[in-house]
Specification:
mainly alpha
Length: about 120
């Protein structure tokens, strides 16, 4: 039950953080949903750092990993919002933004995970 509560609290904090970031950054009238992309990239970087650090040192407990990686990063990043925003671009015939947002989100997300893993080796 403790593990479930850790994921629950971490996910709640991550979800609220993502919502606030999106409200602050997103402007659907003029551009891509940068807030969602930013939360996905930052969450990817953070999970790379957390899991990379966990792999090399015993200083991060399983409970901390559940709270931060599974909970916070799981709540902070969001594939469902990403998919919905792309659906809107596609439905509206905005294929340029559809492809730009999809490709840049995937490339930046993967790069952020790899960079986080690399940074964790330096810590």
């Amino acid at each position: 039950m403790k593990q479930v509560l850790l994921v629950f609290f971490g996910g709640g904090i991550g979800s609220v953080s993502r919502y606030l970031l999106s409200k602050w950054v997103n402007n659907f009238e003029t551009s891509l949903p940068y807030g969602t992309m930013l939360s996905n990239v930052l969450g990817s970087l953070l999970i790379g750092l957390i899991l990379g650090y966990l792999a090399k040192t015993p200083h991060l407990s399983q409970s901390q990993s559940l709270l931060l990686a599974t909970g916070f990063c799981g709540g902070f990043t969001t594939f469902s919002t990403f998919a919905y925003e792309n659906h809107i671009f596609f439905k509206n015939g905005d294929y340029l933004h559809f492809f730009a947002y999809t490709i840049s989100s995937l490339l930046l997300g993967f790069t952020a995970v790899f960079f986080g893993l690399y940074l964790s080796k330096l810590l």
